[in-house]
Every structure is written in C-alpha cells, then in structure tokens.
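# nightly structure sweep
# worker-07 picked up a monomer target from the shared queue
# config: single-sequence mode, recycle default, output format = structure tokens
# input follows
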Amino acid sequence: MLQSPDLAAAPAAPASSPDLGRIAVIANRKSGTNARDNAAIGRAMKAFGAERARRYSWTPGKDPDGSMRRLVETAIREGAQTVVSAGGDGTAMAVAQAALDTGTTFAALPLGTFNYFARGLGLPEEAGEAAAALMRARRHRIRVGMVNGKVFLNNASLGIYPAILKQRESVYARYGRHRIMAHWSVAKTFLRFQRPMHLALEADGSLQARRTPLLFVSRSAFQLERFGLSGAEAISDDSFAVLVGRGDTRADLFRTALRMVTRTAVEGRDYDFIAARSLTVDMRKSRALVAYDGEKSLARPPFDFRMSDRMLNILIPEPDTEDA
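# output follows
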C-alpha cells in the first residue's frame, strides 16, 4: 500500500517497542451512534485489548478544540499514553490538535467517509485490522499544517470547497452520509456558484494577486496522488502544496470538477501550483468560510499557513503490515 511521501521528509524517531501503553480511543458521539461505526469500534477495541484500551466519547459543541483537549487531558490523567481517533478526518484533526498540545502519541482509525489521513499512512480500511496494525506500529515524528494556529492533517481551503462542505451537511441530513451524496453536494454547489474570490497571496515572501474560485492548501501527498494532482514532491520537502483553481464561470468549474473526478486535471490549465513553506492569504471580505479536513468555520482574514513548531508523534505500520 502507498505510504504518503510526506513521511519520508520528517525526522524519524527510532522504532519503538510494540507496547503503546494504555490507549484512549476517542469516538465522535455524533458520528459514532450508528450500528456500523459502533461495530467497527468494537472490533478495534478487541484488537487493542480490553485491559489496555478505554473508549471515550466526544461531542464537538461550540468549542471543539477546547472540549477535545480537556478530554485528552482527562485520558492522560487516567493513564493513557496513546490517543486514537475513531471517526473521520475531522475527528482525527481534533485529536491530533490535542495530541500536539499535550505531547501524546497519536493514531487514527479509518471510520469516516474518506479517511485520507489513515489511508495515507498505509493502514487497512477495516477498523479491526487497522487496530491490529497499530499494535505492531512504530512511532514517527512529523510536522503538521496549521492555519491561524489550528491544526490540519490533510488540507485547508477557501472558496468553493468550503461551500461544498456547507451544502454537504444539508444533503447528509436529508439522505444520509454516503459518498454518492457527497458528489451530489458538489453538483448543487456549482449550480449556485456566483463569482471568484480576489486574493492577495504571499508565498515564502513572494507577493501576487489572484482571482480564483478555490484556494486549496494540502499536506496530504496521498490525497493529491489519488486525484492526479501536483504537489507530492513539495510535501516530501516539508512544504505545502498550494493549488489555485482556474475558472470564472459555472461551465469552467464543471469542466474542472469532471477532470478532477476522472483524474485528468492538468496544472496550468485547470489550476496553478505553488510550493510554499509559509503562506499568507488576504481578501476583500471581512469574514470567509474556511475548511479544515472536512470541517468548516467562518473566520476573519488574513489566513496564516505555517508548519507546526512542535513535532506530532504518530503511529505508522511497520513495512510487513502495510499490505495486511
């Protein structure tokens, strides 16, 4: 299985003992109420071992980062040495933020819709198998992306993609959380598309003005390679892969979207690529919808993208478990 190239650039810690200590498995209460997810978490808990692992439930609420940090701190006081997110990329992002703040080892189970982070590490997509692979994993240290102090593991974006996520919430609420519904939310958002953004970008000190419907800042080589997009080498170099979408009309966006889905999008025609270790983005609006790993919020520009000063301790499968 493919291992994300961004891991190759990070300083690797020596391989650790298989003993991960006590494990806190943190499940998003909102996404963990259905029978499928509960069964998957149950298989993971069995693989971790009842004497080692304890399940904690998290409700995001109005202060998701604060509530997650308090939950992780509670787990640490109760003996946890490793925290494992049991949910999608949004839950993984929140657990990773708390793990970075507390210095705890972090891992993720693939329980969401897309699971780019867990899949990019080479973990099996079945939760019980992923938990078994984590029990044989080694510790590794990486830098993660941050925008205005908030961690993201896969990507952060401005423009039409956050609008898609907003539309997706209403589609999911009506029809359920299925990948086909995620694709339908894309089409509905494009139909309502109005006009591109006017952005002032400063990438590694270089200034430029751009008119674009989408700014996509990636830290996931796996996600980029899956869609045939540029940037994996930049991520291996511990930089961001910044994709600036091209297109002023709905027709332009539909063509670009089709090329993205069919993995035929081309740099220079459908988007422009910038490699940057730091990026500042300003815009004319007083507030803008920004997306982080599938979550979204209204925030005030400018947006400051930086690599984390501290290293995040993560678990990745040993080579002989990647094809498990």
